[in-house]
Amino acid sequence: MRQPVVIGNWKLNGSPASTEAWVSAVLTGTGALDAVEIGMCPPCVLIPSAVNGSAGSALRIGGQDCAEQVSGAYTGEVSADLLRAVGCHYVILGHSERRSLFGETDAVIARKMVRALAAGLVPVLCVGETLAEREAGHMEAVVRTQVRAVVDVVGIQAFERVIVAYEPIWAIGTGLTATPAQAQAMHAFIRGLLAEYNPHVARIVRLQYGGSVKPENAAELFAQPDIDGGLIGGASLKAEEFLSICRAAAETR
Ligand code: PEP
Questions:
Q1: Which of 82, 201, 222, 239 is the most buried (most CB within 10 A)?
Q2: Among 54, 50, 41, 43, which Cα is nearest to 19's?
Q3: What is the pLDDT of residues 65-79, one digit of tens each?
Q4: CB–CB of 41/92 below 8 Å?
Q5: What is the DSSP letter of 8?
Q6: Model pTM?
Q7: Which atom of ligand 1 is the closest one to the Cα of 213?
């Protein structure tokens, strides 16, 4: 049985005060939610505040990106080792905003995955197609390329630890959500793709859905057999909305 995992991606939002308030509200509200693994990824400089606030609890904190380098003259970069050293559990990699706005290719993402895994982080690998790619019927080919680019570098065994987030780009921050059937079809496709490498890993790997998940649509999405929780952007900023999404995930188990 795969434990559902719900992770908030704060993107470039929040402040020290809102992080402290959010962590405290979520810890109060998640007291009875041990069926779900819960995490949040704030902007880098807010990580210490989130880590300190959640110390001793099951709430796990992560970064939103890491460098493909280990150390050196890379102004502005943060390494996977540093994220781990300050208490991170996860790192989001390959988010569509990193791919489209910062030019990250599959090769770059694969190298970052290597660093994240070596540092002992749990990478949340984001994949997903644009609307044009979906309308042209190319969504499976796009996702296949994104997944294989990483598996072929880090090896399938590493996916026992990796979380894959299927995030159709047309659904991120747009209010448009994939229907439960569309999301399930792609999750089943990704699981099948991983099964071609190793059926055991494919059975245990956790696949999240991301893209305008809200309290109103979370239950139906998480009820799909191959969807093991969600990566939540906008709706993760408000503790109450995030908590109802976590409750929806708990109810599927
Ligand atoms: C995301 O950025 O990972 C995301 C899923 O955003 P939203 O929930 O706002 O669509």
A1: 222
A2: 50
A3: 999 999 999 999 999
A4: yes
A5: E
A6: 0.97
A7: 8
